[in-house]
Amino acid sequence: MRARLLVFPVKGRNWCFSRSLESSSAAVDSASTHTLSGLKELWAKISSNSDIKHSNVELLIDFVSNKMNKAWIGLEKAPEGTFKSRLHGLGLRLLARVKPSEMFLKSIDKEVSNVEITYPTSLNERLVRRRLRHIAKRGTIIHKKYFYGSVSLLPLTTAFTVLPLPNIPFFWVLFRTYSHWRALQGSQKLLQLVSDSSAANLNEGQHEHNKLNNATDNHVVLPTWVMLPSEQLEGLIRQKDEEDGLSKSTISAICKTFNLNAIDVLKYRDLM
User: Fold this and answer.
1) Under a CB-based contact definition with an 8 Å cutoff, are residues 114 and 23 in contact?
2) Looking at the Swiss-Prot or TrEMBL record, what is one Pfam family this protein matches (predicted)?
3) Three-class secondary structure of residue 221 per DSSP
4) Edge-to-edge strands of the sheet including 14-19?
């Protein structure tokens, strides 16, 4: 599966790293077709893969993720003013504190086999790829640390089950555990895709982009990354103010043009 990545400066030294929503939604649709419906099906699948521990861990994580997503959708659809609606509002406030780099790394799932990296023509392509490698390497360190930290908190938060209210701390820590796990996996995958040892360092640019679109021979080795300098993106970021970076209207135009999540892009601008 191919993922389209956008890289561009938003304010000072703050750069935006984002995946196009059209490619990430395709990944979600593909994954949903393999979702396990219940515990019996999960147990049967784990039992049949008893010799593959890593695969079983992924099955369990995907199962828990699906259950959390369904619960979140239920809260989202709750009538205004109800307890579930207030829980959904609390969840949104907590999610707003999640760093955009984590959301970006989570979007690089295991199904991604190559990436298109779109960036403004004024940036050096080696610098762009170096920044991508940096965020991937940093992600492997940070999210591994926070993953183990979240796991260690899970037993403590189970103590809140004695209360007559929903165990919000437990579910939040469970979500953060899953989120850091996904970000860690995404970091490792991205680092693998944009490393110097990948097949893409043999040929770069628009020629590889055409090969990705037109390759029909199963024996052709496709590049794992392709650099695509964009005049259109360059024209949009030229509207920035030197002090405040890209305005909200400019960011909105970029997100609309390249199908990005505007909320996450704005977070990059406001990072300290």
Assistant:
1) no
2) Mit_KHE1
3) coil
4) 14-19, 2-11, 114-120, 225-230
**Residues sharing a CB contact under 8 Å with residue 242, sequence separation 6 or more, in sequence order:** none
Q: CA geometry: angle at 240 spanning 116 and 266, to 5°? A: 65
Collapse the DSSP code of 152 into the 3-class scheme (helix H, G, I; strand E, B; otherwise coil) and give the result: helix
The DSSP element (H or E) to which 3 belongs, if any, is strand 2-11
Q: CA 132 to CA 101: how far, in whole Å?
A: 11
What does each C-alpha distance from 49 to 44, 57, 59, 97 come to in angstroms? 9, 11, 10, 38
**How many domains does the chain divide into?**
1
Q: If you search the block for the tokens 């055409």, which residue do you land on?
A: 210
Task: List, for residues 115-136, the tens digit of each pLDDT value.
Answer: 999 999 999 999 999 999 999 9
Kindly state the percentage of the chain with pLDDT values over 70. 67
Q: How far apart are CA 61 and CA 74, in angstroms?
A: 20
Q: Which domain holds residue 172?
A: 2-270
Torsion of CA 5, 116, 118, 260, to 10 degrees: -30
Amino acid present at 12: G
Q: For residues 38 and 46, give the distance between their C-alpha atoms in angstroms, rounded to a whole number.
A: 12
